[in-house]
Design goal:
The longest helix is centred in the C-terminal third of the chain and has 47 residues. The relative contact order is 0.08. The chain starts with a strand and ends with a helix. The radius of gyration is 31 Å and the shape is globular. With 667 residues, it is an alpha/beta fold.
Length: 667
Amino acid sequence: MLWMNDIGKSFGPQALFEGVQWQVNPGQRFGLIGPNGAGKSTLIKIIAGMVEADHGQVTSIKGLKLGYLPQEVAELASNSIRDEASKGLAELWAIKDHVDELALQLSEHAEHPESREYKECLSLFGAAQARFEQEGGFEAEARVEQVLCGLGFTVAQLDDPCDTLSGGWQMRVVLARLLLQSPDLLLLDEPTNHLDLESVGWLKHFLNSFEGSLILISHDRWFLNQICTHIAELTQAGVGIYTGHFESYLEQVEQQRELLDRQRKNQAKKTANLERFIDRFRYKSTKAKQVQSRIKLLEKMQTVEEAQETQTIHFHLPEPPKCGRTVMTLEGVEQGYSAEQLIYRGLDVKVERGQHLALVGPNGAGKSTLLKLFAGAISPRRGHRELGHLVKPYYFAQHQTEALNMEYTVLQEAQSAKEGVLITQLRSMLGAFLFDSDDVKKKVAVLSGGEKNRLALVKMLLTPSNLLLLDEPTNHLDMGSRAVLAQALRSYEGAVVLISHDRHFIDEVCEEVWEVNRGRVTPFLGNYSEYQERVQRGDRPLPFPLSAPPPSGFNQPSAGGESLAPPRVDRKEERRRAAERRDARSKLLKPLRRRVKSAEEEIERLEAKLLELGELQCAPDHYDRPEEVVRVAKEVRESESALEQAMEEWESAELELNEIAERFDES
């Protein structure tokens, strides 16, 4: 249905991509992936006809209907949310207008039902009304409400003007308008960036039921796994197509890498043998013919290039300063938009040292508000916030990039985070985040969204803290960068409280989930996937206690007149014991995890060493040196023995780690 032939695009001297060959067939759902700056958004704009390619062309079947959602949308006018989204049904409303016009004409000829004009008008009216019904016209308003509510709006909000919404909510209105168009090919550029986890889940179900084709740019691994039938990887050399979802793509890439590695090693051996023969018999007339044939063979041989590693950021968080056991306390907190619109009333919660937890819940539940209360970005209307002993929090806001000074260069902005840091250290750190010697001289204003987010992470790294409060830290980061950030946070020994719409990221980082909803905060031990399983089983723990009744309307009475709210109980002792269990679990598991990691690194080192020794033993001239033969054989025996010990250490530590983790989970 759509073909791209030899598409290329450059900006100035920099070539984004060349020779893109890509065919999109009916029903295919592509995940378009690649590192930041690869040109994914530009390629989608070329497909949508918004940007011209430098060369090549895009062709499609006649009448193909495209729907395009950009990463950032222009501000909407003062139309109501319902009316703006309804523009996606413009063709249907045109049919309705035609039906209404014919109905008016019919009424004008009603006095003469036997006239030719009346009969013609009646026939046209019947056909138009049948088409309106066939196109789902009578369910159109309900469909508009269904899509908008699926994206997080309430029915009461639908008549509010769009220009009162934030940028993220305006993005949802545009997405609703686009989804209602039912295009043949849907082009989505990072549609989940402004959605909460529940809305991402709804969008997943909607797209899976979408009958058209899809090209989706996303760095959310879970979302790509749920949606895609194919993965398209964009590089400078073009587009590589892989069948299956993202995990299948990873497996195929690894298989290709292993195949290339084997081919390269085999070619190296063959080349070495040919060169050795040529060098040995180059000046023997009796071997001249064989030498020339081998020289020609070498000249024709195409070099198998080593697989290129994708460049990603690499860093670790600084060791957190020592602090007390409790890092943050909220007691009797009341907070909301006004005294009549409260989000929390009488909330009591604590964050302990070393906790890694995620705040989850629907939009408007109060996740960002709770994080801001922790950060001191807002003050509670009532109650108090208390930082623990020697606690140094760092707040990474959802729009942290907006706090950057757009007039500074990258280097100047990094310098502003902390005084006294040497320029060489700053350049080294910026280099770790993929800012080269030219990039550090750029103004912040010209950076892409991903580059600004990486710069904000550099500033976070320069600020030692023992409590990280992160609101959507992965926005605009590519997958490699997300993976490295997750690894850094996972090994970070300070406390982490984060909000993210990326389920895979939460699973990688967090060992606890706090569900925020209806003014209550309910803790679940385990990552997000485990939290979902428990909720589906109906296994719900008690929420944190309130020191005052929740806001009115948050706990409606049941049909029998009883409150649905959990009974008020004194859980101080239970919370103390839970904290002790977490502390004990952490103290036992951390050294075991270090043992497992150390053993894995030792196994990897020894396997690599044995591979090198094996190659030495396979060399034709190896056995010409008896002393070398003895030395290598001894190293092989020692390495094999050490590898066996490392494997035993890994198995022992892994077994002990799993047993302790299961014991705590069962308790």
